[in-house]
Amino acid sequence: MESGRWFVVLPDSDSAIAITRRVQPFACASVAHASGRPWLVGCWAADGIAIGASDAGRVAVIGTSSATEVDLERWMERGVEPEPAGAFHLIASHDGNVRVRGSVSGTHRVYHAFVDGVAVAADRARTLAWLADAPLDEEQVAMRMAYPQPPHPMEDTAMWRGVEALPGGSLLAVDRAGRVDVRRWWRSPEPELTLEDGAPRLRDALLEAVAVRARGRDVLGMDLSGGLDSTSLCFLAARTGVRLVTVTLKWAAAGNEDAMWADRAAAHLPDCERLVYGPGELPAFFTGLGEPSTDSEDEPVADVREGVRQDTIDREMAARGVDLRLCGHGGDHVVLAPPAYVHELFRRSPLEALRRASGYRARHRWPRAATVRMLLDRTPYRQWLAATAGSLTAPPADWVDPWGMAPRMPPWASDAAVEVVADMLRRNDAEPLHPARGQHARIHYAQFAGRAGRQLTMRGMVSDSPFCDDKVIDACLAVRPEATASPWEYKPLLAHAMQGLVPAEILARTSKDGSGHEWFAGLKAQRPALAALAEDSRLVRYGLADADPLRRALLSPQLATVPMQPLEQTISHEVWLRDLDANPTPAYLRKDHHAAAH
């Protein structure tokens, strides 16, 4: 989703005209149904929309895509839905019926609600919450406290009562009578391809994804972290002929190899302009934590630590002509099957599954008994999900449960919050994303990455994640999971796909580094802001956190007995709730913002 973009989709009826009048003063553009009634109203880039028209209907693609007007009109003639490359919303209006869909991954989401009895869809939940005067749903706030992430389908929700989020891979249909129907349009490909057959498909999908974003540009901003994901994208972008401006961060930890690998890659990219930042040359993690915000997003930001740092980098890139920055986000989630795939492999190839399970045990220190239980388990997903309600306050699991990592609540969560989440888990009626547990986990990881990638696009400069494109995800899911991940190899699918495009010495990397030193240093520098969060905690106000344990965690993170992630999630919740208080109306729907922009 491009920064600053928003739109609503209206049914082809006179009842929608009053809603149009409410949003029209803030809109930059609008498109009508074939009937002449308002259909799309909002703001989007002039080159970020393609529209096909006929006497009976319209079809629009909003976002980054290879679709053209000719493609869309051909689709309308033949009735065959287009599958362009990129990441986008697809919206159709035909003979009084409306259909809306986003992406499988969640980079382009669809929300819907009844506003004054009229079915309205939008790409932002806040738009509908504003239109419908919908209250915050505290139960959803509690569920988002679960770590490492809420399980499917608990994360596929909106944060306001009365606003519904469309699951990834589903479409919203509104008929001429205003009736709403949600149905699936996407099915996961079956994982049948070998590494040799699947790698070329991933290669082609990534080449196309990068080419779509380079089209019409002279320069692209690129992350060159030193990791295989972002480095691969740099080499693919260089093939398009655009000028590259790359950014590399040097971390302070001794032995960190990211910058060294980035330097090696850059030696093969002689025409790129590099921005290299050493330790201390960018604002610290969590800088700006206590500063007031001018807006709030649809949900707590996944990476609250990075905002000011990335804004600094974006300004440097913009000064060099960059208006789009590509990153390797999502690569870890998409090209690697989670270890849960050994469960299904055990049914097909028991000896190979046992060999791999032993490798993962050695690498991740899984307990032997838990590993055996995981391999033998036949618990249905719904039953497993309900059972996790009983372990929400247990220590973090150090093994893979049958359907993935069981959720946990942080120790500062209140009893009321734990019970709310437990009740939601117990009364679920969920079906897995795929009958095979490993494939279910792969889809869930990809959608988690897509939702996080969506938030990257909401900063000042548009950041984009080609790994989260639906065609890229499909290419990965079509490969047998054991061919994509191994205890003894690092990203074999991506490495094979990039052979001949990325130098062999770069593909040989088998390590991955982090920024734990900077994380703790940033929190230490932000102790006054953290103390303010602790003293006036919104989570405590809502009864979702206990004040004393939360204060201890915020003021002494080095003593925490839980991973870093739940603490950062809690900080993001606190910041998000404060931003909502300060900005009850989205900035793009405020007169002061609209006047300043024009």
Q: How can the largest sheet be summarized? A: 6 strands, antiparallel
CATH architectural type of the largest domain: 3-Layer(aba) Sandwich
Q: Output mean pLDDT.
A: 92
Strand order of the largest sheet: 2-3-1-9-8-10
How many individual β-strands?
17
For the record, give the distance between the C-alpha atoms at the N and C termini, rounded to a whole number: 21 Å
> What's the structural domain tally?
4
> Looking at the structure, what is the overall shape?
globular
> Helical stretch count?
25
Percent of sequence in beta strands: 5-15%
What is the CATH top level name of the largest domain? Answer: Alpha Beta
- Class per helix and strand makeup: alpha+beta
CATH superfamily of the largest domain: HUPs
Query: In angstroms, what is the radius of gyration?
Result: 24 Å
Low-confidence stretches: none
Helix fraction, binned, reads 40-55%
Looking at the structure, the CATH topology of the largest domain is: Rossmann fold
What does this structure look like?
β4 (49-53) and β5 (57-65) form a beta hairpin. The strands form 3 sheets. The chain has a 6-stranded antiparallel sheet, covered by helices on one side. It has a 6-stranded antiparallel sheet with strand order 4-5-6-7-11-12. Strands 15-14-13-16-17 form a 5-stranded parallel sheet, sandwiched between helices. The chain folds into 4 domains: 6-184, Glutamine Phosphoribosylpyrophosphate, subunit 1, domain 1; 195-335 and 441-507, 3-Layer(aba) Sandwich (Rossmann fold), CATH 3.40.50; 341-437, no CATH class; 516-587, no CATH class. 40% of the residues lie in helices and 15% in strands. The chain is built from 25 helices and 17 strands. The protein is an alpha+beta fold. The longest helix is centred in the middle third of the chain and has 20 residues, at 195-214.
